[in-house]
Specification:
With 393 residues, the chain is an alpha/beta fold. Helices cover 32% and strands 27% of the residues. It is built from eleven helices and 19 strands. It has an eight-stranded mixed sheet with strand order 6-5-14-15-16-13-18-17. It has a five-stranded parallel sheet with strand order 8-2-1-12-19, with helices on both faces. The protein is globular and about 60 Å long. The protein starts with 13 loop residues before the first strand and ends in a 7-residue tail after the last helix.
């Protein structure tokens, strides 16, 4: 938790945050805990999220605790991750440490607890305020919304996602490229199974599933390689028959899960570069979350990186309260190399899940043997991600 002394370090300072998702709410809450006045602009009529699951790993859990948020209020602690082949046979199991733990969350639940925390901390949230243009001046930032409202502040923080207006203002347009993969997502009624995330690997495709809300719901994300281009974004409806056909060769519980799907959403997976400029160089603007470093979902680190950004930005501004330019520079320096490495790891995981014969048999054999000889080796491989603690300093 932030000490009483640290909580006043940014008193008298003010920021305008764009976006009411995980990144925007977390950075608002973090700044409030250091005493900064915060206004948050959200384009939607309410702070909400569509139904989908996400995973909070220990590096993100530490930030939630520092923000005064109980991770158990957002999700359930995961016991293990299981890698399975397309027939449902276990390849290897990674038992997860209990503290600080990995949590399986419904995105809407995480957003809800973060909203509660930042409202309780005193953030002023304004809805139906979609940022349209941004002007960065010597002494302030000015944001004009699509309804013609004008908002000014000494500092504007872009937490407005993939298509961030502030990212474009700082970096210019950088068109993404299609990865040749599409993803379906769905939430189905739960089966009361254990809190285990399962990954079913097949040629050119894989499926991830885990329980949510005490097993009353089950989250499904299915990814397939394809030459057919699909639009970016999470909210394109699709026919459940599409994902059933794509994964028709899979066994175990997968066919039953997919036949339980009623509402299905499809999106194309695009690769965006990590932003070259995270701040304006004059202490007036900074990026956090997907606005700075969009990532593919294959390391489950999107929300965790946003949480790390939020705390680091607030911490560096507090350390350099009289020189926000220096604070933002230290923030970017602390985050850029790490986020690039995590994005690269996610890109690599996509290939590992989609191996074809005979490479898949060899890889799965190595994983099985490694799981018997050194059960925690696979988890240790990513200790650089999970053991990181941005709140320690």
């Amino acid at each position: 938790m932030t000490s009483p002394t640290a909580s006043a370090l940014l008193a008298g300072h003010r920021a305008l945050v764009l976006g009411g998702g995980v990144a925007g709410l977390a950075v608002s809450c973090a700044l409030r805990r250091f005493g900064m006045a915060v206004d948050l602009l959200e384009q939607a009529p309410e702070i909400t999220e569509v139904g989908a699951g996400l995973q909070i790993s220990p590096n993100g859990v530490r930030v939630l605790r520092a923000l005064g948020v109980d991770p158990h209020a957002a999700g359930d602690r995961a016991a293990a991750v299981e890698l399975r082949d397309r027939d449902g046979r276990l390849v290897t199991r990674l038992d997860l440490p209990a503290d600080p733990g990995f949590f399986l969350c419904h995105r809407a639940d995480l957003v809800r607890v973060l909203e509660d925390a930042t409202r309780s901390a005193g953030t002023h949230i304004q809805l139906l305020q979609k940022a349209d243009t941004i002007s960065l001046n010597a002494d302030r930032a000015e944001v004009t919304t699509s309804v013609g409202a004008s908002h000014q502040a000494p500092l504007v923080i872009g937490a407005d996602g993939l298509h961030s207006v502030l990212r474009t203002a700082l970096n210019g347009a950088a068109p993404p490229f299609f990865t040749g993969q599409v993803a379906w997502r769905a939430v189905i009624p739960g089966d009361g199974g254990p809190n285990v995330a399962q990954i079913f690997m097949g040629p050119g495709r894989h499926l991830v599933s885990y329980p949510l809300r005490g097993g009353t719901l089950r989250n499904i994300v299915a990814v397939m390689e394809t030459r057919t281009w699909h639009a970016e974004g999470w909210n394109h409806p699709d026919d459940p028959a599409s994902v059933q056909a794509a994964f028709a060769g899979f066994g175990g519980p997968v066919p039953g899960w997919l036949h339980a799907v009623q509402d299905l959403w499809l999106w194309g997976l695009f690769r965006h570069p990590v932003a070259q400029k995270w701040h304006d160089g004059h202490g007036r603007a900074a990026l956090v979350g997907d606005a700075a470093h969009p990532t593919l979902p294959f390391m489950a680190q999107g929300a965790n990186m946003a949480l790390e950004d939020a705390w680091t930005l607030a911490q560096q501004l507090a350390r350099h309260a009289q020189d926000p330019t220096r604070g933002l520079a230290h923030y970017a320096e602390a985050r850029m190399a790490r986020t690039r490495a995590i994005v690269k790891a996610a890109n690599n995981n996509a290939r590992n899940y989609h191996l074809r014969a005979p490479f898949s048999q060899v890889a799965h054999g190595v994983l099985r043997l490694g799981g018997r000889l050194s059960p925690d080796a696979a988890l240790r491989r990513f200790a650089w991600i999970y053991d990181h603690d941005v709140t320690a300093a």
